[in-house]
Write a structure and sequence with these properties.
By secondary structure, this protein is mainly beta. Helices cover about 0% and strands about 75% of the residues. The strands form two sheets. Strands 1-2-3-4-7-8-9-10-11-12 form a ten-stranded antiparallel sheet, with no helix packed on it.
Length: about 260
């Protein structure tokens, strides 16, 4: 990436009705990168995300939080030659251990432009409790992320009569993530503290493959998806528990 622009903003309201606080955050990122050697790849990246949250104070000791997050990301990349008399060989990554070879010239036999579009949304719920001895936070979140990959194909005579390059679905990655967290701190009268940190995550990633044919009739002239199925799946379940005991020794904390 040679150039990058990143703008962020955060805002929140004062406490409303003596128990409710609202917040919002948003950001936009644009970036571009290129290499000045044939074949010359050019990458363009943009990302927009927004989040909203609400905090409810239920009395003096109890709190409930809600949040919702959404983001979209787009990455476009292509490769060109300035010297069309030369046709360097390139390799397109297909899957782990598999590549598709081709050349980049005026009549390219490899992909000219590839588009990555990512959409993700999710939310969470939090509960907090605090008094003179206890400080507890319990949180749960869910996020779904979908990434579609499409490409412009020039090979196999798939250009349209209007000179346009039809888009072909390369694949989709779908990710679902559930996670939870518990933090509980108990402070004794002498200042010592017992701290419990526990977390759980369940993550599932599906790789979806498409089978397509090109309909070159004048009214259609595009790639038709005949079938799709889940080619691969990766699942992960992780649990972590940590217990600390901190001793208040004047201005120094010691832990075991």
């Amino acid at each position: 990436i040679n150039q990058e622009y990143n703008v962020k903003m955060k805002a929140s309201t004062p406490k409303l009705f003596n128990f409710l606080t609202l917040g919002a955050t948003a950001s936009y990122k644009a970036a571009q990168g290129a290499k000045q050697v044939d074949p010359r790849p050019l990458m363009r990246v943009s990302k927009f995300d927004v989040g909203v949250s609400a905090l409810f104070e239920l009395g003096e000791h109890n709190f409930i939080g809600l949040n919702y997050d959404y983001y979209s990301r787009r990455e476009d990349g292509n490769a060109t030659n300035t010297n069309n008399s030369s046709a360097p060989t390139c390799w397109e990554f297909v899957a782990p251990g598999f590549f598709r070879s081709g050349v980049i010239d005026y009549y390219s036999s490899i992909i000219t432009t590839r588009y990555y579009h990512v959409y993700a949304m999710g939310g969470g719920l939090q509960y907090g409790f605090k008094n003179d001895h206890w400080n507890i936070l319990l949180a749960g979140n869910y996020m779904q992320r979908v990434e579609d990959v499409t490409s412009e194909y020039l090979d196999n005579g798939c250009g349209t009569d209007l000179g346009e390059i039809p888009l072909k679905m390369i694949g989709t990655v779908k990710e679902d993530v559930w996670n939870g967290k518990l933090v509980a701190n108990y402070t004794f009268n002498n200042g010592n503290m017992l701290s419990l940190n526990a977390s759980y995550e369940d993550k599932s990633v599906d790789g979806i493959e498409y089978f397509q044919t090109f309909d070159n009739t004048y009214e259609v002239q595009k790639w038709i998806v005949n079938a799709k199925y889940t080619r691969s799946n990766k699942s992960k379940v992780a649990t972590d528990i940590k217990l600390d005991y901190l001793v208040n020794d004047g201005n120094v904390y010691k832990w075991w």
